[in-house]
Design brief:
With about 130 residues, the chain is of the alpha+beta class. The protein has helices spanning about 5-15, 20-35, 50-60, 75-95, 110-115; strands at about 45-50, 70, 100-105, 115-120.
Length: about 130
């Protein structure tokens, strides 16, 4: 998905949000769209938390710049562990298709609960 600088600035003026925040949210929505149509991820990841509530239920005048996802693909822990590399690879492909850089964030208890975090960077056009 692409958005021009002019479209971004127009949206920022109409909504009152800063252009760089609008751009981040726009990319997050593109990531969510990519997950929702991805043949492997669409039935394995669900959006949760405040961003999910705000985007789909409350329409609050607030823009969040993060997304929280839960894996729901397998109940068996060993099956989850086996699928994890494919989930990560698919997410990375979506991020790269959006022109985003990725940095892994070490998790304190990742070995215990299987969680992982990625920080995604973009060279913004809004600034």
């Amino acid at each position: 998905m692409e958005i021009s600088k002019q479209e971004l600035l127009r949206e920022a003026l109409e909504t009152g949000f800063r252009p760089e925040i609008m751009e981040k949210v726009w990319h997050l929505m593109a990531i969510l769209d990519g997950i929702s149509v991805h043949p492997f991820l669409k039935d394995r990841l669900v959006l949760k938390g405040g961003t999910a509530l705000n985007l789909f239920f409350f329409d609050l005048p607030r823009l969040s710049v993060d997304i929280d996802l839960n894996y729901i693909g397998q109940l068996d822990r060993q099956e989850m562990i086996l699928e994890r590399p494919e989930v990560e690879k698919a997410l990375e492909a979506i991020f790269q298709r959006e022109g985003l850089s990725i940095r892994r964030i070490p998790q304190k208890h990742a070995g215990e609960n299987g969680s992982f975090a990625m920080q995604v960077f973009l060279e913004g056009m809004a600034t």
